[in-house]
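To whoever is covering the structure queue this week,

Two jobs came back overnight. Logging them here so there's a record in the thread.

Job A:
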Amino acid sequence: MLDVVYTYLESPIGPLLLAGDGVRLAKVGFPNGKGRVAPHDDWRRDDGQFVEARTQLAAYFAGELRDFDLELSPAGTPFQLAVWQALAGIPFGVTISYGELASRLGRPSASRAVGAANGANPIPIVVPCHRVIGASGALTGFGGGIDTKRWLLAHETGGHPDQLQGSLF
């Protein structure tokens, strides 16, 4: 990314880093876990940017928004981009397995590759990788940590995070 601008959004799961060109979102970074994103030295902080992204994310966390309508610019391979586009088609409050996502892409034997692409999603929450779970219903790895995944799923289903004990079944 050239001329990357970033800001932070306070959220119930901690401060989220938003980065991109100021309008198009290229990254959402969690405060913890493997999905933690720290600004690079050549990025420029500008808290006046990403107005629409901050507005929509705040509405999502307030329970007032189910579907994002934002300009995005994720960087990835053609396969990753296809997986991320498929993720965007998973409705609010619905979970599917990695195998189901692979089948939706016409690649039923590629669940591991789909899982790897899912894990590389640079724009979590907006591109809802948290809605993909293990075939057994297990809340498998997540860039923001399992507790964050549990919180997001409970938020979307109207449950309490403690009710999702690591499995949805």
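Job B:
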Amino acid sequence: MIVEHAEFRVKPGASDAFEAAFEQVRALLLEADGCLRADLLRGVDVIDTFLLRVEWERLEDHTEVFASTAASRRLAAAIAPHCDGPPRVMHFIAQ
């Protein structure tokens, strides 16, 4: 299993809007082939920061399969207006 961590910095004051936008499109991620779980965590130490934690069966389920879908583009379009730049994305092997 692969765990994706995507750190988002949102525009000042846009945290609530970002969170609401993500909740509207969260199902797109959860319905993706290979997606096992997706959680959005709000930062405590740094205001207007979020961590998206997604569990995937395989790395390719995220980087190749989901990334090439209309669902991925819809998810990005919904949350991007609230972001202050692209997310920092890292993948980890869960044991």
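Note for Job B: Residues 15-30 form the longest helix (16 residues).

Please reply-all if you pick these up so we don't duplicate work.
Q.
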